[in-house]
Design a protein that fits this description.
Elements lengths: L9 E5 L11 E4 L11 E4 L6 E9 L10 E7 L5 E8 L12 E5 L9 E7 L5 E11 L11 E4 L8 E2 L12 E4 L6 E10 L8 E9 L5 E2 L4 E5 L5 E5 L4 E5 L5 E7 L8 E8 L1
Antiparallel strand pairs: 1-9, 2-9, 3-8, 4-7, 4-9, 5-6, 5-8, 10-20, 11-20, 12-19, 13-18, 13-20, 14-15, 14-16, 14-19, 16-17
């Protein structure tokens, strides 16, 4: 049987404006301690349509020679918000004019009329970054599976994930366990990672990959690319879209990172974001 997509406009909404702006998005301030989330800030008052895809981005949290690990929560609902996406890694997000944003795309359903907010915790305390929200949806049925929430695996102490040592100088790297057992069924996953407490980053290109299963894990076909500069700027992952695959509850998940050159002296840490 021939499947014919639903006709109609794919609607778009964002908090990032429609004209040039050095700080597009909503200014969100990290908490007064590195492990403490700051006050939640409203990004969108009321969504204009039913959302099927959300992109979350961050800009302007990096600073040369400064430890800039960062995690952002996306919240939905009124003043007693519910966490929709927890602890998105945005460490070393690009400064204004230094090359764009860090961003992630998630196939998530958000009802029309929903308030969306964000809160953040970072190694640089009481510091502002720009959180961008982009929404797609509206009329018709999406041509892909859509979930209700994101589960985050691998957080150690906010704002850090699980330590992952990259394979240096083009080596593939060893898979590091992020979770021994997923808490529920998932259908899409994407990794996030950042440099650790090193403050003299090197110009490098990285790949990251996700493995599923026991010690002889099966690696997903999607490889995500990232870059890092001596100005402490991190960009990625690219693509910012998750890999769609069925992941049953109880599945072990791992991550590996590969570095184009020598590793920095500080640790690297990562999480895996899984949609259900």
């Amino acid at each position: 049987m021939l499947w014919v997509p639903q006709k109609g406009e794919l609607m778009f909404e964002s908090n990032m404006g429609t004209v040039g702006d050095d700080t597009p998005g909503t200014q969100v301030t990290t908490g007064g301690a590195s492990s403490t989330k700051g006050t939640a800030v409203e990004c969108i008052t009321s969504t204009a349509f039913e959302t099927y895809m959300i992109e979350v981005s961050d800009q302007a949290y990096s600073l040369p020679a400064t430890n800039s690990q960062l995690m952002v929560d996306i919240l939905v609902g009124a003043a007693t918000e519910e966490v929709l996406i927890a602890n998105l890694i945005f460490g070393q997000s690009p400064l204004v004019g230094s090359g764009g944003f860090r961003s992630y795309l998630f196939p998530l359903y958000i009802p029309a009329g929903t308030r969306i907010a964000a809160q953040a915790a970072g190694q640089r305390v009481s510091t502002v970054s720009s959180v961008g929200i982009k929404l797609w949806g509206g009329n018709g049925v999406p041509p892909f599976r859509v979930g209700r929430k994101v589960t985050t695996y691998g957080v150690s102490t906010v704002p850090a994930g699980t330590t992952v040592v990259p394979g240096a100088t083009g080596a593939a790297g060893t898979h590091t366990q992020i979770t021994a057992s997923t808490s529920e069924d998932h259908f899409a996953v994407i990794p996030g990672w950042q440099g650790g407490d090193d403050t003299t980053k090197l110009d490098r290109t990285y790949t990251s990959a996700i493995g599923l299963g026991a010690a002889t894990e099966e690696e997903l076909s999607t490889i995500w690319w990232s870059t890092q500069t001596t100005d402490e700027v991190h960009q990625g992952p690219s693509p910012n879209l998750p890999h769609f695959t069925d992941i049953p509850s109880g599945t072990r998940m791992t991550m590996r990172i590969s570095n184009s050159g020598a590793n920095d002296s500080g640790n690297y840490n990562g999480c895996i974001y899984a949609v259900s």
